[in-house]
Design goal:
about 220 residues, alpha/beta, Spore Coat Polysaccharide Biosynthesis Protein SpsA, Chain A, 10-stranded mixed beta sheet, two-stranded antiparallel sheet, 6 helices, 12 strands
Amino acid sequence: MQADLMDKVSVIIRNKNESQFIGFALQSVCDHLPNSNVVVVDDNSLDDSMDIVKMFNTRLNIKTIKIDDYSPGKALNIAINYCQHETILILSAHAQIVRMDLHSVKKKLKKFAAVFGNQTPIYRGKKITKRYIWSHFIDGEVTNMWSDIENRPFLHNAFCFYNKKDLIDLPFDESLSGKEDRYWAIDLLKKKKSYLYTPEIEVNHYYTVNGATWKGIG
C-alpha cells in the first residue's frame, strides 16, 4: 500500500435523531482519522443532528444520504458504495473514539476481515461497570469472539473496521431490524474467514434511551 494511503479510511455513521452525540463522534474522527471520507446515512431525523453534521463540512469530506425503508444492513450496504478507501470504519453516532492505532489495525486487516475495538459504556456521564453485553469488551485480543450471553459469534458495529472487499463480497442482511453485525459474523465464519477483537483501539459508547445495547445499565 502506498504510504500516502496508509492513514486514509472511510467512515460510515448511521444517524437517527443523534443531535446529542453525533458532534462528539465527528470530532473524534477529526482528531484521530483526519484524512477520512465520512458517509452519514440519515433515517429521516427530526432533530438538528444533520445541521451539526454540516458544521464539520470544512474539516471532513462528508457525504450525506437520506434513505427510506431503513434497516441497519440497508444503510450500511448503501453507504459502502460511497466509501473512497479500502479500509472502512463503521462508527456509532453516539460513540467517541478515544484511542486509535490505525497502522496496527491495517496490519491486522491483512489477516482478518473485520477488527472491532474496545467500548467503555458511559451512562449519563458516568463510566459504568462492564456487565451484560459490555462484558465482551475485555483487556485481551480474541479471534472469532463467541458470546455465551447470546449463544452466537459476537461482533459489534459501534466501532468496527472492515476490508471493503469483504463487505462487497458479503453484504449485510437488509431484512434484519438489528444485530446485523452478529449475523454477518456467522456468515463470515461459514466462509472460513476470521474477525478480531482488540482493546488496542477504543471508544466511549454513550447511553441513549433507545439504544439496543443498553440492557442492564448501571
